[in-house]
Every structure is written in C-alpha cells, then in structure tokens.
Amino acid sequence: MTPGRKGLDTAEGVLIALRQCTVDEAFREMIRAAQQHQVPLFTLADALVTAASGHAECPNTAARAAVLAEWGPLLTTPERFTIG
C-alpha cells in the first residue's frame, strides 16, 4: 500500500475495530505513536494496515517495530509480522 490519506483512513478503521474507539481517538492514538516512535504518520499507518492484513512485507523497520510495540497484542496473528 502506498502511504497516504487512504492508508491513514484504513489504519484508523483498523484501530476503531481493534480498540472500539472513535475516529478521533484512533487518529490521536496514531499521532501519538508516530511521534513517540519518530515514524512519519503515513508510514506508520501503512505498517499498521500491512500488519492487520497478515502480511510482513512492510519495508520500514522502524514502522514495523512501532506497530508491534503499540498494537502487536491486538493483532490476530502478530507472529506473522516479525522484525528481521
């Protein structure tokens, strides 16, 4: 997936489903995580969507690590989204 607004919207949807939160809460959580892990927001969103879809081909190691740190336990198959 190409990072961008569409990917951000999809990532917000993933968080809404995982956390049962509002769109605003999902967006704020992603902003906080991006800042905390020093990863661009759209890159983090792309990594979250990739992880939620069960794929491990996210090329950004920092974004993968951030997703695992923030939401790994909530994803159905976090072992499929490994670093390395």
Automatic annotation (TrEMBL):
Annotated ANTAR domain residues: 1-49
Question: Which Gene3D superfamilies does the record associate with it?
Answer: Winged helix-like DNA-binding domain superfamily/Winged helix DNA-binding domain
Q: Name one GO molecular function term.
A: RNA binding
The protein in question is named ANTAR domain-containing protein
List the taxonomic lineage: Bacteria, Bacillati, Actinomycetota, Actinomycetes, Mycobacteriales
